Amino acid sequence: xxxxxxxxxxxxxxxxxxxxxxxxxxxxSQPYYTGGDILWTKxxxxxxxxxxxxxxxxxxxxxxxxxxxxxxxxxxxxxxxxEWSYQLPFDLPGGVYTIRFYTLWNLNFDPPxxxxxxxxxxxxxxxxxxxxxxxxxxxxxxxxxNSPLQLSxxxxxxxxxxxxxxxxxxxxxxxxxxxxxxxFSVAVSDAAWISPADASRAHLQEQLNRLENAAPNxxxxxxxxxxxxVEGMAYSPETKMPLETNYLSLxxxxxxxxxxxxxxxxxxxxxxxxxxxxxxxxxxxxxxYQDPLPEIEILHPATxxxxxxxxxxxxxxxxxxxxxxxxxxxRQQRKYREIFGQAPTPVRQRPDRQIxxxxxxxxxxxxxxxxxxxxxEFLDEVVLTARLKGSNEDRRIFLQESExxxxxSRPAWFQVDGFLISDTPYALAIPFGSVDSIQxxxxxxxxxxxxxxxxxxxxxxxxxxxxxxLPEGLEDVSNGFEVSGFHFPYTFxxxxxxxxxxxxxxxxxxxxxxxxxxxxxxxxFPASDALGTFIIQAEGVSLDGRAGAATLKYIVE
Length: 557
Prior knowledge:
Layout: E1 24-28, E2 32-34, E3 38-45, E4 57-63, E5 69-76, E6 81-87, E7 95-102, E8 109-110, E9 115-122, E10 141-142, E11 150-155, E12 159-160, E13 165-173, E14 182-190, H1 196-199, H2 202-213, E15 217-218, E16 229-235, E17 248-252, E18 257-261, E19 267-271, E20 278-285, E21 295-298, H3 320-339, E22 362-365, H4 375-381, E23 387-389, E24 396-398, E25 413-416, E26 419-421, H5 424-428, E27 435-441, H6 444-450, E28 460-465, H7 474-477, E29 480-484, E30 506-514, E31 520-526, E32 532-542, E33 547-556
Parallel strand pairs: 2-9, 12-33, 25-28
Antiparallel strand pairs: 1-3, 3-6, 4-5, 4-7, 7-9, 8-15, 10-33, 11-13, 13-31, 14-30, 14-32, 16-19, 16-21, 17-18, 17-20, 20-29, 22-27, 23-24, 25-26, 27-28, 32-33
């Protein structure tokens, strides 16, 4: 099998009239991180009316300090924005990392258009010291872009006690003072660890300037991504030529969904239903006269972007006092977690899915068959409708159709822990002691209801193991790979419960802020237990893509 590259992309059948790139910008929650921190971001479409946005999917890549792809996900667009949150692994080495955002439509240009943001991941035990408090911090509404959105922040007072509830009002208007509806995000942080470059929201203005001056050449004809699609090339394992078949099948294992299409010049394009996270998938050729396991190459959008490290944005030289303050607060939070017995936030992973299975014609619990020693013996001795033919590598299972009582002329397939395989000797070699249950699908109606319709010419034997995990080596046999769905954003956690004080550097993050017809909205959050000056940083875009940003300071005494 070829090295599998995972993607969800598809080519355009026609041509778009509009050949402009889709400009993106990302609001990051903070400039510094340590291992275990959650990286909060909100991605905006700039200078674009919501109704004109073509792509429904935003791709995000996390690159390590050497420019290598570390992590990738797909974000589902909502209106003119998308959300992404990612918990950095605890053992990730320190350095300057880069996040890259783009849409497939932006890969039509030469050079491809992507938005990149760099951040510093700090390593070590957090040996920082508290610098002087920034009491002279000035709040202001920043003018960004040629058609600015006026964004302002107001609170009921400037000084609060630790733990006190803070309410901040947000107002959005145009240059004439008219109310504006838009989407916004807010980060609340200790002011002493925000460097001047990040406080001025220079990243937003720089991106607007870059978009205004850039004029990439239109090159490819990739269709804007409306939903999830798996695309690639299939080859004959014997001739290595592009495979022509009308029975190419994509199986999403955890969802137990099958999709069947024909190839054109070896190309395949599977539209798949929306799902979150990742799940296993496999591709088969169900044409009974061709090899069931084609060689496949799944296209990867990141391969269409330049990998030259020079394309990465240069990281702003960090402010040493700001870095020290951040590490100081992280050390304080860790110390009180130890005192109050609070474990650090674990790395979040998607919950395991239960493999869906349909109702079988026959179902057997292996706890009732301790006297047997192999799957081969079980099928031969217990399943009277199954007939074994051949020996060793030529061993095959033939099932009997339950309604007509006629024997299928072609050998049965196996579904092992959700994976569909045609390798009978492999399935029969699964240790019998590890098998939990065996099902037999021999009715054409039940087969057609839970498998591709072509499987009604074979019959299927289902094998479920006790741990429910894919037996070793089955990935190669089943032509399996991982396919990415949409990212499911995390929810920002409230302050720690109990008596532990809250010294988190990032006091609050909120990304779902929508101003109403009066241009107003508000947020609430508790003041930190740390004393000093704090800064609220808000930014976002109106529904027609105009950008705005503002800051507001308050003091905790």
